[in-house]
Amino acid sequence: MSHLVRLEDISLTGIPDDELGRLLQEIIELCGYAWDVHHRLTYPEVEAFYNWCRINIAGVTNEELHELFLGQDFLSLRQARGFWKLAHIASSLTEGCVEEDSDWATQPQFLAELSQFVSKHGLYLTTYCDIGRPSWEEDPSAIVAIVKRYMAANLPDPSLRIEQQILKRQERCQVLSAALPIDKRPEFDRLYLSAFSSLHLREDHVEWIEQRPLALLRRVCKAFGIRLHALGLIEDPLDCAYFTLTELYQFACGISIAQALRELPARKSSYESDLKFKPPRFIREAPRSSPDDVSKLLKGMGISRGTVSGRVCSVRSVGEAFEKLSWGDILVCPEIGPDWTPLFSIAGGLVIESFAGGMLSHAALVAREYRIPAILGIKSACSLLDGRYVDLDGTTGLVEIGRRFESM
């Protein structure tokens, strides 16, 4: 962590080319190390705590154990609260107007809060793990777009929900501890503290491993782009995204990159063509059933209890979700990571195709924080539920498919 912060504090202005090259190498090594750590993290503490409780507390349920982890303060949740605060300030300036021609985003009060938000969360990339895309620090308009979603939803102050969740957690902890013999309680406390801390490490590591190192790598690549542009070698400094990291390092070492420069137009054209390509939903033969003749009842794993009825918003990426999701929609997607967290304030319910993480996945933890029904492990849900109204039961894991709706 200290290594990353040190690199972030280095000014790239006026740094010699060879030193910029060495810095590029150092950051590449840091990114590799970070992802190596990412794949080694296993977090056995939570499962060990659950198993201990099942053995030592008669009749304890998973739902009761889940309550011990409510009221969390993950970085992704703090980020979502930051969006709410921005939306609250914007609404107070415009009486809730979110029209494109509104000037709330240029008001000093909003800009001051936006500046604070960017100082805390600005290194998040607008497209997860894609250094070819700008960070929020570079493109605050992406933040403003999310704020508009929050304004349209007219969300309540999240602090009340957090206080209620913390109270529920504390009450459950007291009940379960009281159910144990006195000599067992110190072990309960030790395992609980270890599990609670482990969840924070698992959730917050995304910023230190998957976001900030890559945002730092993008900064250095942009510095190369600025130099290449100043030499008249490329038209736009952001064209640095079309070079390999090896080619940028070669430039720093004074090695010719003439071949890469000749290929640049073709690389840009190929990239733009790839953006327009829509991959097939199935690599092999598609399921024979269509949404009109599939069973009206689908079964998955309920990870956050409760029931909800609503219109499905089926998406394949977080960017698509921010564009399409409306207040109360049932969000259906292949999988979810921490960068999806701001959407939990808007969604009425959640269905995920993947089983990854189960009851202790990011989706499960955050859905329970926001008290929205959620289900994992419904294969092909994006295709089967697209364009439908559904009834979702996060307790039983059942989804009942209703009628179609007309797309806008």
Automatic annotation (TrEMBL):
Domain PEP-utilising enzyme mobile: residue ranges: 328-397
Protein name listed in UniProt: Phosphoenolpyruvate synthase-related protein
A family per Pfam: PEP-utilizers
Record-level Gene Ontology MF annotations: transferase activity, transferring phosphorus-containing groups
Lineage start: Bacteria, Thermotogati, Deinococcota, Deinococci, Deinococcales
Superkingdom: Bacteria
Gene3D superfamilies: Phosphohistidine domain (3.50.30.10)
Record key words, sorted: Plasmid
